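Our preliminary data section would be incomplete without showing what the modeling component actually yields. Below, a chain of 236 amino acids is followed by its predicted structure, encoded as tokens that our downstream tools consume directly.
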Amino acid sequence: MARKPKNNAPNANAQQPPRKRGLFGLIFLPFSMVFVVASYLAGSVIVSIVLEWGGMLFGLCDYDHAAHVLEQEFAYLGDNFTMTLFGISAEEAALRVIHFFQGNLVAPPPAQGHVSPQELLSMRFWSQLTANWPYYRNAVVYVLMVTGIRCVIIFLSSALFVLVGIVAAIDGLHLRELRKVSGGIEHAGVYHHAKAMVPYAVWLSPILYLAWPSAINPNVILLPGMAAFYLVVLVS
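Predicted structure:
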């Protein structure tokens, strides 16, 4: 009876060792991170503009809705951040930038007078779009300024994200030591699932806050995001 030849070839299903990032990848890592952040920011701006224009076309919001959102976001900035490292308040710095863009980019309203959004449903699309184009153009400028204010709020809140991550890591290591002393079982699956959710916990709340179509207090979105970030870091 012939013996089967031994298969000395390595198993194809064996787990491959993790690849180490080369020097080329390390050099371009900051550029790739900047590209990812810029793509997320551009996507949130496009979504905000589409929602704003859709609301104006179908009568869901007024033509000055974006300007009212800017005023409310400006108030939230002044309420949550009173002073910056440059010696002036965040509200005063944002006010200077807003006045600059309003004086250079905001167009005057059309000469024929204001047309209510409800009338757009009974008139032709392109004629109304061209007649009221300054309102749509101003909406784009206001959306960009709202996005800028929200980026400032997220940037000033990033220190709290770092602090929450440090506290969660300390608490998680402390709980791990308690499990080791008491004979607890470490579940690798729980660790891997929690580790995979860390980037989503970091990026989800800022992206949702940037693309939100109406004025909203940043604490309503950012604080639950920080709580989710704390939980996933604690578990992992």
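Confidence is low (pLDDT under 50) at residues 118-122. The chain is about 70% helix and 0% strand. Preliminary results of this kind motivate Aim 1 of the renewal.
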